């Protein structure tokens, strides 16, 4: 029957609560009078029984005005006590006036005070009793997963309350680092020390640990996640405090553990003066505006109030996606979306001159090492010649600042992609050295998290599919940085230097990819299957280094690095080629690429990029196909 009542409409439930109160209020007054009279009824009160029946006539309208019947019983909290307090207090004052004016002399006056107590207990208590019944029925109808909450602070308690009112998780206990909280209880949940976690997981059959520490640093979160890793239980975390304060997420919206949490790297707040120096009230152009880095640059630039934002992109869909996103998130920013290739000098020059571009962020590039390794001519054309073409157009259009997005793979490259990015740097350095009117700046950094083709989403997908997780080599390491932090640092680095500068971003400590894969498996609540654990869940399989792939990436060619005004941006001092030498190489390279002569293009790359040690396995797929058919010669 109780379930049938719960299925009633909201309006019907409100009527039922009013009827319940209409019964409880006379009962509370009768209980108060009988208690005052010592358990006996005074017959002299019989003519005044109408007072018992009339009391709901003014109390229920008071409750309606105070919003008591708008509260959803399942989610009522302690605030309802204040509503009942005000309502009952007003009811008692009116009751006193009614008894006085009706000259009900036999009515014991002190029973009015007792009525106040009983009414508070009956009306308020009925709500909490009903809430308990509803939640118990919910628990039976929708069994919830038992979980532990790491963090017994304000966020942890709010999370507990939200989960208790929900239908997905059942909080079983708190864990906290603060010894002063140990053995305390909140709503029946005890707080335990972290060293009791293993026992708690076993005793409560917890299916997950929810980390409710939105204000702690990334470094501290990393320490906590490392301590939880041996438990082999899924970990979820509360969003950061900034997201909670902004209202973008709610307390009960838990997230999977991000790779940022595993890295333990706290981003440095951007400096407004550096962020706006080349952007505010200027015409800014981003090439490759639809790519992973380019699109984040566009988002960051839009927040710095440019006069006009020019989006330049070869991919129609990528350009459409970022243009529509800006239309929704930054409708006040004037923008123009242009399709085109950075290898098309006339199109790039046309775009720059038509809109009076003042600052260029050149993010257009092919970046996937294996793809460029087997499509070397396309990679050289887009990355190296495309950068030189865009820089030439920028000079002709009078662009003030040109910022190149480079990569750590440009340092002593072993692959075509890295060599093309180093050649792009050399082209800009040469233009600065000859006295260009455009200030050329290069920013070099490592891998960014969440970019297309990134190893992290690949690992997540492989874990969800049951494995194996593929790693190229047991010892391979990489630097990682979030896309927003990389974009912010690129913009700030672009505001520094006199030109020809190669800025290197502080990427933190390199990450061993095999350890990253193992930790992601463990924090998903699974076990790595290996010789020591043959019955584990997910195998880590080593596929071998891909063509041109390094075990370790570097950020500097030489040992000379200078600090800058920003703690995470350094200035590298590196060699560059003179104009005559580089111009000759570029002419030959353009000719080789124009003829699709991959062998000659590859040989020229090794000559112009002195430290380039190309792989013997480098091969243009088209050339290989041509060799098989006896059609062409090449790599």
TrEMBL record:
Regions crossing the membrane: 15-37, 49-68, 80-100, 112-130
UniProt xrefs under InterPro entries: NAD(P)-bd_dom_sf (IPR036291), Polysac_CapD-like (IPR003869), Polysaccharide_Synthase-Rel (IPR051203), SAM-dependent_MTases_sf (IPR029063)
Keyword field: Membrane, Transmembrane, Transmembrane helix
Domain Polysaccharide biosynthesis protein CapD-like stretches: 284-573
Record keyword ATP-binding present: no
Pfam families to which the protein is assigned, alphabetical: CoA_binding_3 (PF13727), Polysacc_synt_2 (PF02719)
Entry keyword annotation includes Membrane: yes
Family the UniProt entry places it in: Belongs to the polysaccharide synthase family.
Protein name (record): Nucleotide sugar epimerase/dehydratase WbpM
Organism: Paludibacterium paludis
Gene symbol of the encoding locus: wbpM
